[in-house]
Specification:
Blueprint lengths: L2 H9 L6 H4 L9 H17 L5 H17 L10 H13 L12 H37 L4 E6 L2 E7 H26 L1 E2 L15 H7 L4 E2 L3 H6 L2 H29 L3 E2 L18 H24 L9 H29 L1 E2 L1 H8 L6 H9 L5 H14 L8 H12 L9 H7 L2 H7 L8 H43 L1
Parallel strand pairs: 3-4
Antiparallel strand pairs: 1-2, 5-6
Bound molecules: arginine.
Arginine binds next to helix 6 and helix 12.
Length: about 475
Amino acid sequence: MSEEDVVRGERFAGGPARGFLSSLSADERIFAADLAVDRAHVVMLAEQGIVDEETAGEILAALDTVESDGHDALPDGEDVHAAIETAVVEAVGPEGGRMHTARSRNDEVATCIRYRLREDLLSALEATLALREALLARADEHAETLAPGYTHLQPAQPTTVGHFLLSYERALARDAARLLDAYGRVNESPLGAAAFAGTPFDVDRERTADLLGFDGTVDNATDAVSARDFLLESVAALAALATTVSGIAEDLVVYSNRGFVELDDDYASTSSIMPQKKNPDTLELARATAGDAHAGLSGLLTTLKGLPRAYNRDLQRATPHAWDAVDAVTDAVDVAGGAVATATWNEGALADAASEGFSTATGVADLLASHGVPFRTAHETVAAAAAESEADAAPEYAALDAAAEDVLGDPLEAYVDREAVEAALDPAESVAGRDSPGGPAPDAVAEQLATAEAELTDDESTVAAARDALAAADDALHSEVTDYV
Ligand code: ARG
């Protein structure tokens, strides 16, 4: 045992507070990360001549054994870092204590968290890309499928299923961009900062960063061990993503209720008492996941607020907020992707609902406005006809004509052909006419789809390249290790 362990193990063993101090079980999440960090550090120490090659080989061999025995076989310790070090010292003898030369658990844990979080962020991104892909595939398929569009949950204007689904894909593209942006700053190595104040040993921080697949280092040693803003921004990005997903889930729950969409049985649940029930439970759970993410974000903000430099043990309680959020959100996004990919859109019910509530009223007003009537006056004319008509239905031509006489002082035909008015009252014509950029007309949707598909392809290659870079670093680290063992 190293002197440090004797001190930690005996005088500061924790007493009644032992369990409270320990993060060992939560640290299972970073068990593999810690082994990688230990290996990279030991390889660097050997390369720099800080530890001799033979000792490095023995330590690296012991780490292999620790790995194959698994986290559950670790000796007791305050955390995974201490426990692995104890296991190495037990295997190698006091020389094993050289592993902790020129580092502290402070830079070690920060490196482990970033190392593991990279993988988790990539999983969250992959789930997001799959959901985007499902939305784009269904949007393409339903580019001409009429649908009611709502504001305030009231019938507003006809649109298409394609345009509606694409609106969520666009939001998810921004969510993915935020995650990728966070990934860039997570992917920097604090290792070599030691406790917060650097080390007299001639460490090569770039080398350990490189061995661990990081893009660079967190330069200032005090910043390197103190900073957890990478957790904050990752969880903030996850919370934004979960908020988008909660909207998708909510809309699909409402649309299932109205018979517009039917979830595949795999994404629905039934009732223990009401035999006829098919409930959209998976989407309700996905909707609720925003709560998990937001809880993680506020847990982090509250824990980190007002912490002094450099390392404070509060940080140990910050990390699990990030794991909980990334797990919950990734699962929710995964399930939302499956639900979207397998749902059936009921074109008949959607088409019926698309014309409910005089949803073409704006189109009739637009038509008058494009034939010389000031838009506000056109709005007033159509509103007068709507007031005289049955709720939930478009007015008859005669009612519009009477309103024109009243408000404009002329019959409708003084402004526009009857045929054009009849067309404007038709939901499909109404959609086809709204071909402004970003609009729901099938041509406009086709352009948006092309842009979205290109962006998705780019994001897919970015994420795949990040995965490959991590795998390549892992391979390279293993082959370095093999040289010593
Ligand atoms: N278990 C600690 C954590 O998760 C590791 C660092 C402990 N460092 C210390 N100086 N007590 O943050």
